[in-house]
C-alpha cells in the first residue's frame, strides 16, 4: 500500500519536475515579453530529440554510459540557442501588435517545428534505450524508484532555486522584473530592451529544451510530444497564475501529482480532471493562485 | 461595383464545377464548403466581435459526432434533420460555455475556450464505449432530400448530390451571415470590438452581445462539422484537438478577417494549397507555418488585404 502510494507520488513529482522547467520557460517569456508562447512545447520536443542524438553520438564514440547525462544536458541546453534565432528572426516584429497576432505567430512556430522534427528525425519514436538504469534503482519505503528520476527531480529543484536567485539577487534579475512591470520606464532608465528580450526568450527556450532532454531517458521521443505537452504546461501556468514563477512551481506539482493519481485510480479522468480544474481556476480566480490582478 | 460581377462569376464556376473539373478537385471542394460554413461563424466572433477562440474545434467536433451518432446508432439518415440537430447540439453546449467564456477577453478568452475544447477532446478520447475512443465513429452516407441516391457510387454521390447540397447550405449560411453583420446587431458587435466602453455607455449590453455572437458562431461550427463528417466518412477526436482550432483561426487570417468574404477565400486557399504542397512535399506544416508567420508579420489583412491594397488602406482592427 505505502509502496504503491510512493510510486504514484514519485511518478507525479518526476512529471512535475519536467513540467516545471517548461512552464518556467513559458512564464519568464510571458512575464517580460507578454507573449504566450505556444511553441514552448515544441522547444521541449526539440530538446528531447537533440538529447537522444547527443547521447547516441556520445556512446557511439566510446563515452562511458554512466556519464550519458552530461551530453544529454549539454545537447538540451545548446539547442536552446535556437531561441536567439526565433526572437531576432520572428518575434521582434510583433511586440507592438495585438496579442492575437503574437499568439498566432507562436502557433506558426509550432507548425514549423513539428515538421522540422519529422524531417530531421523521422516519424518513428526514438529513445536512449535503457541507459538510465545505469544509475540503478533506489528503494523508498518499499517502492523502487529509478535513481535517474531522483536526479532529474533534484536538478529541477536546483534550477527553480537558481531562477529564484537570478530574479531576486542579480542585476539581470532586477532588470527582468523592472521590464516585466513597466517596459517604458525601464527603457527610459537606459535598459536596452532588445538585449533583454533576446536573453529572456533564450532563457525561456533553454528551460524548455532542457526539460525535453531530461525527460527523454525515461520515455521515448515522438513528434507529437510537443503539442501534447503545451496543453499541460498551459494548465500549469493557468493554475499557478500567468507570469509567476512560484505559480509555475505549485502548478506543476498540482498537475503532475493529480495526473499520476488519476491514471492509477480512474484512467478515463486523467487529463479531463486537469482541464476541469483549469476551468474552475480561470472562472474563480483568473489570475491563478499566485498571479497578480487579472489582465 | 466589382463585387456583384465577381460573385456571379464565382457562382457560375461553383455550379458548373462538378461537370467541368476532375472528380478529385470536386471532392476537395466538399471540405472547403464545410469549413466555409464554420469560418463564417468563427469570423463573426474573430473579425466582427474581436474575440479569438482557440477552442472552436469543440463545436466542429460536436457537429460531426452528432452526425455520426445519428446515422450509425439512431438510424436518422436525413441530412435535413442532421444539420439542425448538429446546430442544436452545438448551441446547447455553447450556451453555458459561452456564458462563462465571454466574461473574459483577449488571452483569457483564448485560454478558456482552449481548455473547454480540450475537455471535450479528452472526453471523446477516453470514454471509449460512448465515443469509440481514438478510432472514432463512422458517419454513414446521409439521405438528401429524402432519397438515398441508390444508383450513385460513393464518389458519384459526393461529387453530385452532396456537392450541390453542401453548396446550397453554404449559400444559405452566407446570405444569413450577410444579413446578420449588416443588421443593427452586427453594428453593435463591431462597436463592442472597437470600443467596449463606448458600446456599454450607449446601452449595449456587452457580455450579452458577445454571448449571442458566441452562440451564432457555435451553431455555424456545428452545422459545418456535420457537413464535414460525410466526405471524411469517419469522425475522430482530432476534430476537437487544439491544433485544429488553431488551423481554423489560421484559415480566417489567411483569407483576411477584416473582410466578409475573407474567411471563405481563406478556407479555399488553405485546402487547395495544402493539397498542392502535400503532393510534392510531405511536410506541409513547415510551409504553412512559414506562410502563417509571413502573414502575421507582413500582411495581417490576409489575401483580401493584399488584393485590396491598391484600392484602400488595409484596416487592421485592434481587438
Q: What labels describe this entry?
A:
heterodimer; A: 295 residues; mainly alpha; ABC transporter involved in vitamin B12 uptake, BtuC; 12 helices; B: 319 residues; two-stranded antiparallel ribbon; disordered C terminus
Secondary-structure map:
The complex is a heterodimer of chains A (295) and B (319).
Chain A: H1 2-33, H2 40-60, H3 69-79, H4 82-89, H5 99-121, E1 137-140, E2 143-146, H6 147-169, H7 171-181, H8 183-188, H9 193-215, H10 225-240, H11 245-265, H12 270-284
Antiparallel strand pairs in A: 1-2
Helix pairs in contact in A: 1-6, 1-9, 1-10, 1-11, 2-3, 2-5, 2-9, 2-10, 3-9, 4-9, 6-7, 10-11, 10-12, 11-12
Chain B: H1 2-20, H2 23-48, H3 57-72, H4 79-101, H5 106-126, H6 128-131, E1 137-138, H7 154-182, H8 184-194, H9 196-201, H10 206-232, E2 234-235, H11 242-255, H12 262-280, H13 284-298, H14 302-308
Antiparallel strand pairs in B: 1-2
Describe the 3D structure.
The complex is a heterodimer of chains A (295) and B (319). The relative contact order of chain A is 0.20. Chain A has one domain: Orthogonal Bundle (ABC transporter involved in vitamin B12 uptake, BtuC). Helices cover 71% and strands 3% of the residues of chain A. In chain A, helix 1 crosses helix 10. With 295 residues, chain A is mostly helical. Chain A has a two-stranded antiparallel sheet. Chain B is an all-alpha fold and 319 residues long. Chain B has one domain: ABC transporter involved in vitamin B12 uptake, BtuC (Orthogonal Bundle). In chain B, helix 3 crosses helix 10. Chain B is globular, with a radius of gyration of 19 Å. At the A-B interface, helix 5, helix 10 and helix 12 of A face helix 5, helix 11 and helix 13 of B.
Amino acid at each position: 500500500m505505502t509502496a504503491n502510494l510512493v510510486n504514484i507520488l514519485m511518478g507525479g513529482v518526476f512529471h512535475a519536475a519536467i513540467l516545471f522547467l517548461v512552464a518556467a520557460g513559458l512564464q519568464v517569456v510571458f512575464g517580460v515579453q507578454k507573449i504566450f508562447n505556444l511553441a514552448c512545447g515544441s522547444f521541449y520536443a526539440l530538446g528531447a530529440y537533440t538529447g537522444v542524438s547527443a547521447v547516441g553520438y556520445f556512446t557511439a564514440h566510446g563515452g562511458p554510459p554512466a556519464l550519458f547525462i552530461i551530453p544529454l544536458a549539454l545537447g538540451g541546453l545548446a539547442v536552446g540557442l535556437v531561441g536567439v534565432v526565433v526572437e531576432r528572426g520572428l518575434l521582434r516584429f510583433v511586440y507592438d501588435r495585438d496579442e492575437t497576432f503574437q499568439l498566432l505567430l507562436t502557433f506558426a512556430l509550432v507548425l514549423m517545428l513539428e515538421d522540422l522534427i519529422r524531417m530531421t528525425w523521422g516519424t518513428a519514436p526514438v529513445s536512449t534505450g535503457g541507459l538510465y538504469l545505469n544509475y540503478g534503482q533506489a528503494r523508498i519505503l518499499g517502492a523502487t524508484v529509478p535513481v535517474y528520476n531522483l536526479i532529474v527531480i533534484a536538478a529541477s529543484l536546483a534550477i527553480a532555486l537558481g531562477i529564484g536567485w537570478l530574479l531576486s539577487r542579480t542585476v539581470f534579475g532586477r532588470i527582468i522584473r523592472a521590464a516585466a512591470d513597466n517596459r517604458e520606464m525601464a527603457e527610459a532608465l537606459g535598459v536596452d530592451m532588445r538585449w533583454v528580450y533576446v536573453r529572456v526568450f533564450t532563457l525561456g527556450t533553454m528551460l524548455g529544451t532542457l526539460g525535453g532532454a531530461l525527460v527523454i531517458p525515461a520515455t521515448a521521443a515522438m513528434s507529437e510530444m510537443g503539442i501534447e505537452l503545451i496543453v499541460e504546461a498551459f494548465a500549469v501556468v493557468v493554475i499557478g497564475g500567468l507570469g509567476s514563477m512560484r505559480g509555475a512551481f505549485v502548478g506543476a506539482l498540482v498537475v503532475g501529482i493529480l495526473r499520476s493519481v488519476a491514471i492509477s485510480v480512474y484512467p478515463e479522468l486523467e487529463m479531463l480532471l486537469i482541464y476541469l480544474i483549469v476551468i474552475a481556476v480561470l472562472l474563480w480566480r483568473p489570475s491563478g493562485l499566485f498571479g497578480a490582478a487579472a489582465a | 461595383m466589382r463585387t456583384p460581377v465577381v460573385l456571379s462569376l464565382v457562382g457560375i464556376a461553383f455550379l458548373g464545377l462538378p461537370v467541368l473539373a476532375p472528380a478529385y478537385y470536386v471532392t476537395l471542394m466538399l471540405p472547403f464548403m464545410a469549413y466555409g460554413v464554420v469560418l463564417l461563424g468563427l469570423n463573426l466572433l474573430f473579425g466582427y466581435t474581436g474575440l479569438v477562440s482557440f477552442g472552436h474545434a469543440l463545436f466542429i467536433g460536436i457537429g460531426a459526432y452528432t452526425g455520426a451518432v445519428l446515422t450509425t446508432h439512431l438510424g436518422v439518415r436525413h441530412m435535413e434533420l442532421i444539420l439542425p440537430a448538429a446546430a442544436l447540439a452545438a448551441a446547447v453546449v455553447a450556451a453555458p460555455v459561452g456564458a462563462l467564456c465571454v466574461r473574459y477577453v483577449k488571452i483569457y478568452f483564448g485560454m478558456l475556450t482552449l481548455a473547454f475544447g480540450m475537455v471535450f477532446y479528452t472526453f471523446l478520447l477516453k470514454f471509449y464505449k460512448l465515443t469509440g475512443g481514438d478510432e472514432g465513429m463512422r458517419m454513414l452516407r446521409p439521405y438528401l432530400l429524402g432519397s438515398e441516391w441508390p444508383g450513385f457510387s460513393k464518389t458519384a454521390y459526393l461529387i453530385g448530390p452532396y456537392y450541390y447540397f453542401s453548396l446550397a447550405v453554404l449559400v444559405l449560411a452566407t446570405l444569413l451571415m450577410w444579413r446578420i453583420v449588416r443588421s443593427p446587431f452586427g453594428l453593435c458587435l463591431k462597436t463592442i470590438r472597437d470600443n467596449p466602453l463606448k458600446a456599454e455607455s450607449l446601452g449595449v449590453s456587452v457580455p450579452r452581445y458577445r454571448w449571442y455572437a458566441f452562440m451564432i458562431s457555435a451553431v455555424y461550427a456545428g452545422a459545418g462539422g456535420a457537413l464535414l463528417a460525410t466526405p471524411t466518412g469517419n469522425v475522430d477526436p482530432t476534430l476537437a484537438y487544439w491544433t485544429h482550432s488553431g488551423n481554423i483561426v489560421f484559415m480566417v487570417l489567411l483569407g483576411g478577417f477584416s473582410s466578409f468574404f475573407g474567411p471563405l477565400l481563406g478556407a479555399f486557399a488553405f485546402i487547395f494549397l495544402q493539397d498542392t504542397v502535400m503532393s510534392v512535399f510531405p511536410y506541409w506544416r513547415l510551409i504553412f507555418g512559414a506562410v502563417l508567420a509571413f502573414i502575421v508579420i507582413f500582411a495581417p489583412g490576409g489575401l483580401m488585404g493584399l488584393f485590396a491594397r491598391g484600392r484602400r488602406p488595409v484596416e487592421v482592427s485592434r481587438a
